[in-house]
Amino acid sequence: MADAVGTQQVDVLRVASSGTVRYYYALMGFAALMSITVAIHSVSAVRANTSAVGARRQVSGASTTCQLAVSMAASFAVVFACLLLAFAYMRLVLGVEFGGRDGLAVVAIAACALMSVGFGAVLGALPGMPVAGKVGLATGITCLCALFAGLYGEPAMQLADQISQTAPWAALINPAAQAANAFYDLTYYDSLTPFFSTVGVLVAMAAAFFVVAALLMRGHNYERL
Question: In terms of C-beta density within 10 A (0-12 exposed, 13-18 middle, 19 or more buried), how is residue 152 classed?
Fold first, then answer.
């Protein structure tokens, strides 16, 4: 009968959100994208104009696509292992929470590693550019993508939120943002649908990168070896 109004705070997320945890998710995306240098070195070594080993590979009986697939598989093993170590450090030492879904977090790491290797394969297959130039290009792309994924503090997080709201397509094509979103979706949403949607985007990116890398490798001929 009184005019008093009672309020109760309700959190719609599975766990309370934290800027610190979100920073570590963005850091995982940054680490995944920086790992493209592994595939750059591996795929560049297949090209005939990079080394004597690359020239011998080009004249071997194995197809270019097969050589590319083998290089990507080896790179994936390395990147996946490195990201797993980073995940273990965050989870066990730093105490970063992944919503009690550590097993699915490993699935997200595998998708991030696959995307990283595919992106690195595209840069590694670029003709007419030295390996150092490819690594420099990869570093610049990684730092730019990490900015729009919210890595560099609270202002960057606000920028990432604004971009996600006003231009969702820009966040969709940002591999660093998608890698971070995989862990965000896993931790904060009750449903796994957003998580698997993000993992699907990462896998689709990897597949598209592989096709582009294969076309670049097959479309470049050499006058002499």
Answer: middle
